[in-house]
Amino acid sequence: MGKTRGLTTAVLAAVLLGAAGCGGGEGKDSAPSASATATQAPSRPHKDGHLTFTLLSLRCGLNAVSGSHSEAQPEGRFCWARLRVDNKDPEFHTYVAKRQRLAGVSGRPGQPDSFAMAVRRQHDTVEIGGHDLIEVELWYDVPRDAKVTGLRVSGDRDRAGYMNTSPVPYAPDGVLITMKPLVGW
Questions:
Q1: Is residue 2 part of a domain?
Q2: In this predicted structure, what is the pLDDT of residue 37?
Q3: pTM for this model (two decimals)
Q4: Residue 70's domain is classified under what CATH number?
């Protein structure tokens, strides 16, 4: 019985010592960085056309993007947005990723980066069913000195209703959702 108890104690000690060393990496502090634990409150909902948008999070300063089949580095830095798109109408309406632009960034960098979006397997367009919602990722490659201030969202331009052929009310340049981006991942 003494040998069994000694062996059990030795195995238990080895397991506990092994578990104590997990997750921290050699010579590195295992506590997460401040940016990794920082969170943002979602924006209030903003409507454009038939679609209602809620910006769930916005991060900038990312040095790479990876997916199931590829990875990419930005020319400047990546900004990443998580967006909820809600169709409260009973008809189908189409969400178009390229219409969602970063505020504070002009020109092409203000539009989603097509390669980063493909790496993350995000669709260019999504037909949203009636009374349904989706959550999507948007990836932007912006200049390092860009001062991102939020996301300008743009919904559909469909007819206002079943018997109404005029277009639904919408903001011609989209609706600005302001949010200060978190830095890093």
A1: no
A2: 60
A3: 0.76
A4: 2.60.40.1240
Do the domain assignments include residue 31?
Answer: no
Closest CA to 116 of 75, 148, 174, 85: 75
When divided into structural domains, the chain yields a total of 1
Q: Burial code of 118-136, b = ≥16 C-beta within 10 A, e = fewer?
A: bbbebeeeeebeeeeebeb
Binned at pLDDT 50, 70 and 90, residue 106 comes out as: confident
Between 65 and 175, residue with greater pLDDT: 175
* In the predicted structure, residue 36 carries a pLDDT above the cut 90: no
**Residue found under tokens 């989209």:** 174
Domain of residue 54 covers 40-183
Is 53 part of a structural domain of the chain?
Answer: yes
